[in-house]
Amino acid sequence: MRKWGPLTAICLGTFMLLLDVTIVVVALPDMARALHASLGDLQWVVDGYALALAALLLGAGAAADVLGRRRVHVAGVVLFAAASLLCGLAGGPGTLVAARAVQGVGAAAMFATTLPLLGSVYQGRQRSAALGVWGAVSGGAAAVGPVLGGLLTEGPGWRWIFFVNLPVSVASVWLTLRVVPESRGRRGLRVDWLGTAAFAAFAGGATYAVVRAGEDGWGSAASLGAFAAAALALVCFVLVERRVAHPLLDLSLLRRPAFLGVMAGALAFNGVAFGVTPYLSLWMQTLLGMSPVRGGLALLPMTVAAMVVAILAGRLLHGAPARLTIGGGLLLIGAGCLGQAVLGAGSTWTALVPGLVLVGAGTGLVSPTVAGAALAAVPPERSGMAGGAVNTVRQLGYALGVAVAGTVLTSRMEHTLPHGASHTLAGGGAGALRGAYSAHALRAAFASGLDAALVVAGCVGLAAGVLVLALVRPSRRAAEGVTDSGAATLSEVKAARRG
Question: Is the model's pTM score more than 0.90?
């Protein structure tokens, strides 16, 4: 217990927070029916969590360095558990979305402190082993999410995808307090609260603007106002980061082509690979009549391909340039999205399989190497900042990907169905719509919307892959033996430590 207890405690928290990114996907149709939620509501059920996690991750890491990492981690688990209870008890979509955002705040505190806590406990070979286990747990959480979500939704009900977090949280808090020692960053650090607030406003404003564009149109006053507010928040963030003594992000790092390329690739990666997945789940369950379990299992080709490729790449491509693994992986993901854009009124879920396999293969190349590439592209003293930044943009990319996919889907459906029909369909009103429209028309409209969203995702993936290939070059640190693809093994422990 004394040797591997800290790893167990930290992995419990990591598994929970990453599981909740994907576990809700197959439960969305049941949530919509129970809470009379619209498509916009469902977007925020997914995005509320991812946005809060992305917006506060850097700030939570900086606060943990000052206040104590174990203290912040435990506080995050407690907040996560309380929010999970509220999610399970939610009586309407507004309550659920708000509780999901609070969940994301707790998850940010947990995620920002996992690697530094591991680094403070383990050294040498034990550290490498601990990081290997942590990485496997992280990947397993994403793989298990849809299937476990389907089992819980079809069994005791969708509310149990949140209630299941409660006993795990209790075990995590008890074990963390018992076996994980407290640790802090170097003395004299200050938390960049202004930068944290400005970045949160930018991330939230940009995502809200995209969602509003799907409901009111890109040229509506609400959409344009939200975009303007997000732009202003971004300007404020840049001004703050240039002036504070301990910034969340050293903007001079963005002048490095390799770091800029990796950040662009990380931003596109999660959004392109997973942004359309919630709507595929809605299509399979609402219009194809699949059960939650079958809907979760239908996504397994992507998960299995990602795991197999990640294992093979770790053995066969160790030390390969990051520009090839990340850039090539994004090209595969883009091609996979385009390969799924073949849906029609008569399509079944099997039409997605070739594209899902390609997306999974690309994910298996990108996911294990993107963090290490970001660390290898910056000076060693900025490793913590780079690690936090790449995790932040990955979550932000997912939130924006879900929002963009939903907006494109809604816009395309409105060309076929009457205004508001797509939102009613998401809210469980398919039966009512069939009174005026045939099942063939509904399936054709939704499939057309999915095709459009997948084409957009595919094009973004291909463009991001080309950008990474152009910008990311071998660094001096890689030439000295810290390879882009292997840097995560030794350096990710420092990823939440402020440089």
Answer: no
